[in-house]
């Protein structure tokens, strides 16, 4: 058997097709992610929509950082980390949702997430971990931890915190890496035709070096 070796690097436009495919493979069939309730993840419209959205973010929004893990023994990309420096994002174009989306659910969910972000995130200094996706074939091989280590080192060097939203199943990885639960978003999916209540956990990680001091009104929304 060929031993897998992994490499972390910044992603570029040429990585968009592979990264978009990884995102969709990570979404499909995973009850823990809201994406399967909001978007037609099995539809062929999803890949071109995801590619277009990612391309726009890379070209037009310098606050987004895409990082990849590549299996150097096969050349495949098992993982993608999307991390956003949460500053100067006003005026960014909002792309239309893919055809077949549950638009009312999408709007409710993102409005709830935005409210929590506004409450906890310092938009001038904090990082926001927007997404971390693994191809199912590469689960439990340490790729997620490699990407988190990359992001944590960057944030710690700047004395920055990192905020994220996680599924309950994904909390363990983040707790081990220094995040703490600060809040949650609960969405009742019964009104959208699903017999399920979905919880998203809001988490924050303080820097371990160069910690900053916050005044009582430093965070936006307080």
How would you characterize this protein structure?
30% of the residues are buried. A 7-stranded mixed sheet has the order 1-2-3-4-5-7-6, sandwiched between helices. It is an alpha+beta fold. The chain has helices at residues 16-27, 35-38, 46-60, 103-120, 143-158, 171-176, and strands at 6-10, 64-71, 76-85, 127-134, 162-166, 180-188, 197-205. Helix content is 32%, strand content 24%. The N and C termini lie far apart (55 Å). Helix 1 crosses helix 3.
List keywords for this structure.
32% helix, 222 residues, seven-stranded mixed beta sheet, alpha+beta
Chain oligomer state: single chain
Largest sheet: 7 strands, mixed
| Portion of residues within helices | 25-40%
Low-pLDDT regions: 86-94, 212-222
Rg measurement, Å: 17 Å
Determine the N-to-C terminus distance: 55 Å
Query: Hey, roughly how much beta strand do the residues contain?
Result: 15-25%
Strand order of the largest sheet: 1-2-3-4-5-7-6
> Can you give the mean pLDDT?
83
Number of helices: 6
Total strand segments: 7
SS class: alpha+beta
Element string (H = helix, E = strand): EHHHEEHEHEHEE
Shape: globular
Summarize the structure.
This protein is α+β, with helices and mostly antiparallel strands. The protein contains six helices and seven strands.
């Amino acid at each position: 058997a060929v031993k897998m070796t992994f490499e972390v690097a910044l992603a570029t436009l040429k990585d968009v097709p592979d990264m978009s495919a990884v995102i969709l493979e990570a979404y499909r069939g995973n009850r823990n992610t809201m994406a399967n309730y909001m978007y037609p993840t099995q539809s062929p419209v999803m890949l071109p929509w995801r590619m277009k959205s990612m391309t726009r973010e890379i070209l037009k929004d310098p606050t987004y950082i895409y990082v990849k893990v590549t299996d150097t023994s096969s050349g495949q990309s098992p993982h993608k980390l999307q991390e956003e420096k949460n500053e100067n994002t006003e005026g960014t174009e909002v792309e239309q949702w893919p055809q077949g989306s549950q638009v009312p659910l999408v709007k409710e969910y993102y409005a709830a997430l935005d409210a929590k972000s506004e409450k906890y995130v310092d938009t001038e200094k904090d990082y926001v971990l927007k997404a971390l996706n693994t191809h199912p074939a590469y689960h439990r091989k340490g790729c997620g931890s490699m990407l988190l280590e990359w992001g944590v080192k960057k944030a710690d060097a700047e004395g920055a915190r990192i905020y994220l939203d996680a599924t309950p199943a994904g909390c363990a990885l983040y707790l081990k890496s220094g995040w703490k639960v600060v809040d949650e978003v609960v969405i009742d999916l019964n009104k959208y035709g699903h017999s399920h209540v979905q919880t998203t956990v809001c988490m924050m990680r303080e820097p371990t070096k160069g910690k900053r001091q916050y005044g009582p009104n430093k965070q936006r929304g307080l």
